[in-house]
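This week, study the protein below.
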Amino acid sequence: MTQMQYNIRGQKTRMYDADTGQTRYVYNALGELVSQTDAKAQTVSMQYDRLGRMVQRQEPEGMSTWTYDTQPKGIGKLAAVTGPNGYQESYRYNGLGRMAETHTQLNGQNYFVSTVYDQYGRVESLTYPTSLAVQNTYNEHGYLADVQRASDNQPLWQAKRLNARGQLEQVALGNGLVTDKVYTPTTGRIQSIQTGGGVIQNLAYTFDKLGNLTQRTNRHLVETFQYDGLNRLTQTAVQGVYSTTITYDALGNITSKSDVGSYTYGENGAGPHAVTSISGLKSSQYTYDANGNRITSSATGQQIEYTSFNKPRRISQGNTSLEFEYGPNYSRYQQKVTKAGQTTTTTYISGGLMEREVDQNWVKDTHYLFAGGESIAVHIQKNHGIAEETRYLHKDHLGSIDAITEKDGQPVESFSFDAWGQRRHPDSWNTLTDAQLGELILNNTGLTTSRGFTGHEHLDEVQLIHTNGRLYDPVIGRFLSADPFVQAPTFSQSLNRYSYVMNNPLSLVDPSGFFLKKLWNGIKKAVKAVGKFVKKYWKPIVATVAGIALGVVTGGLASGFVGAVLSGTGFGFGSAFAGTMLGGGSIGDALKAGLKGAVIGGVTAGLTTYGVNSLFAEGAAGVQLFGKAARVAKIVANGVVTGLSSLALGGKFERGFIWSVATGTLNYLYGRLVGESPRLLGIGKTADPTKGKWDLPTNGSLNFGIQGGDGKVGWLHEGQPVTDSIARYVPFMNATSGMHDFMQVAMTFRSDLLRNFLNVPYMLPAALITVGAYMGEKQYIPPPSK
């Protein structure tokens, strides 16, 4: 349960969560958050400049500061940051205001990372703090084609084949190996990954229609998976090796895991989603602090201390301890591991672009090399370049490292992880015994990288995974801290702040410990698609909007035949006038085009509304003549009229014809799917109080807001004053909501997970269909085009 209180300005002043306790918030007169106090009585205070930018933050760990505008070409940009323990970072910009250099000072050491861009603003070269530099080359379509080492043009990565979705199907690596990936054309889901002709990697995948992984194979090994109705993993089975079953309660808590034991939650004041004891094969008791962070484990004797921002500060277990330092953005920049009195210090530079490990005997610099947003290789230098080599990373469908090869293409390390991220034997998929795991921990300084499951860092000494956002326990399949974000509040499983990717670890990825990759990518792709569409078609969009606006005004002056003609006249004038102005014409040219458009628009509206439409009305001659094909004949007839109108305006017949047929078809589909014609506004309608979560839109009702469900009292639900006002008075909002509701109900297989995932991506197509259907209803002619 989560409760929130707000002041009269609508600002959240208090939040109580059953997992994380009470948090209080204080704001200044400008509405800026100036202090925040958590359940452990830890207070963080913030200060801002006149532009509302944070310039200082004081917390128990110390003070962080931000400085702006002082760098050349850096007006409005961040110039420098300082943090506790002497952390300093400054930025330099090039002539176009792009980030050119980052200078980080840590523990008396200086680290510079510089970036050079090409004429199109793409990254051309990147130079690491050790002077290692890589160069990017792009093809004629703007896609990244290859990555090379700048010093000797040694190839590191080359894109060989890309499919229509933009997915890489073949990649050549600098050690001569080729990776081939096969995707399902209809869904874009991965089918197989092969490297070195199947010698290095030979992975195959099968998914169900909801995107759940049901089988994966690697050479002779086969593993199958089963799920419940909420897409939660319930069984894993490696043929001839082992089988594991998992059960859950309604809250998304794991109640039993056959290879671990039975789980109990909420004891001794812990939250309802915090596992407090396990009985069975791996019995243990756990305790938590007031913020919901796990602090002890009885089975291992593990103890964890946390920062005020709920990230681990120190982990101790037996004769091993790990200590962490974080920067002003709460990202980890240093880790010290002490085992039996021997300490290794790892420094993370530029968000993990490079790692420097220092112990009593040597210095090891690990450079992560990237292509297309993912790490493809590591370049290792020991003792400041005395010895160096490049090794290549081969990953599975989740981004977990499956194999590592040397410069000659020979494998040097192989890895495998079970469904929840535990290390297992790569050749048999058997879970590692305590002795085998102990040997790995003893020898892990020889590993190329400590990164493994989904690309995150394994803290093998304490059998945890650091996702940078939170610690994760792959043995029990739970996070150690509560997620500060609830990604999908309408999906019950998302309310569990400790569950790992809503208990679907084979199909979803948590890249930061905070957000699911599929959900976040869906949002980013939807926003990106809207941006690209508007950028490409903004001129005809503006012309069309102008036409619709004037068409609505003029059409509202009268009804029936006269109203239709006036509406067409207004649209014709508005779209032609705006289109001419946007095309660079003068006001005089625009007025001439507008008047011509008004005449032709009015004639077109009259011919279609009271000509063609009357001919194909129920029982009319057109219906008797064409029978079942009358609908198609009507759309074609309107297309002919609109095509001739387009020709009269100086455009092309086929453009008007295709426009009319397309919008007429959308209008027909909208009516059949939603049950009514699209209306510009929802005035005069009311919300349907009986509409359930999986009900289709109701004729004549308001559909804007969260649909159905028990307790429809939230201000964002359908039928509430705010949502009803938006639906009634914001153009196209209610009509688009009707189409969106149909898509959410009919095209998500009644899956809560799929429905929440597709909620944002469905918005753009719903809006486009609705506006197109409205134009088909009014038979507007297309804006003029050069």
